[in-house]
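pls read this stuff:
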Amino acid sequence: YGLALNWLHVTGKANFESVFQTYEKLGLKDTYEVKSFLSGEEMGRAYARAVVAVTRGGAGTLSELRERFG
């Protein structure tokens, strides 16, 4: 359909290396960005770019999503 998707996966420090290596092995490094952590400011920018967010359901995450998406 000509739709370009870009993914941001925030893994946490414990899982970063294995997730990063998996994406590289699968050849997905051009469309997937893997980070171990985002600061509050970086998270705000990520939400601002997002059309869809797939997240865990913690209270902090839900509060951030409500603030961003209403």
